[in-house]
Request: fold
Amino acid sequence: MAYFKSLMACALMCALATQAAADVVTPESTGFTFTDTKVVKTTPIKDQYQTGTCWCFSVTAFLENEILRTTGKEVDLSEMYTVRCLYPEKAQKFMRMEGEMRFNQGGGIMDVIYAWDKYGAVPESVYAGMNYGEEKHDHLELIAGMKGYMKGIVAKPGKRYSTAWLSAINGILDAYLGKVPESFTVDGTQYTPKSYAASFGLNMNDYQAFSSFTHHPFYEDFIIEIPDNWLWTRMTNVQLDEMEQIVDNAINNGYSVAWSADMSEKTWQWDNGYAIMPVLKDEKNMDAKELARWKKLPDKDRNTELYEFNGPQPEMVITQEVRQQMFDSFETVDDHLMVIVGLAKDQKGNKFYKVKNSWNTNQIYDGYIYVSSAYFRAKTIDIMTHRDAIPAAIKAKLK
Reply:
């Protein structure tokens, strides 16, 4: 099975999703019938459009869910405020690393948690971050300009850094996204970004990230080695079965889960609303009946093919060893963040997760995709949820 390796897939697939509206299929045509068994309360789906800021849209949606869970209040928080606050920090790290790290739109699963504590939050109505004449988010010009500027800066044409370069980055960000508000009024109450975040009563120390890899000790914290983890934040290593148990326990107890994963697989079927890890055979070894159950479709945007299936298929058995091999060989890469909001099953009783995306609602399940347990086990990079959602038996093992 060939895998799409580009870590720019978040922005690329966003564009693909928005262009596919004209060919949206109906649930009856896919061969799958999904039944939700448990779904947590969640806020409306948003559209990151032409940006690679899935990390911010997903974890902001996760925090909106947490506010909804704890207060019953539905809020619409600004993703671009967080993006605006973190870009200067990313630029400074890029400078201190002399350009030997990635400077792009991506981020990690804990970036919004970090920013909430340090910079607070503002409503979408206060800071939309769209000062560049478009109706939807589009950062292609913004990131191209900043990357070019930063490459010039780290080249040190003057043999040292001046005192002006960071002000220039802030000027670019102010021009495109807008100046950060010092204070604002919501429902008659004046807030600063810090006091607005504090008004919801969330404690960012209550949120913990997990992954599952054998090249680090289990039940200890580690820094996951992916380029978009530019903050070098830590997460806790648990066994694969336990990582899945954390998600199941969270959903069953009303908590959503932020989810970072690889969606570049040929079997990630966004338009058809499902992602599976089937056992694929070589066509020459398949009989006519087997061939009729799946077909390959061209995907010009990714210069590859997608597999389309007519209903449930036998799936791979994903062990800890199989998962590790996929990560070590870069068959599994970090390219998208979403939010797991539910448990479901297909018509054969197979377990699926209901996942909330940030690619608008012009899709078969109005912006949601059903991800099989096998796909989750193979293609998860990391997860993040509230500490109270961790099963007691797992929590007792953590150092």
Q: What stands out?
A: The first helix runs from residue 9 to 19. The first strand starts at residue 35 and ends at 39. The chain has one domain: 9-395. DSSP finds twelve helices and 15 strands in the chain.
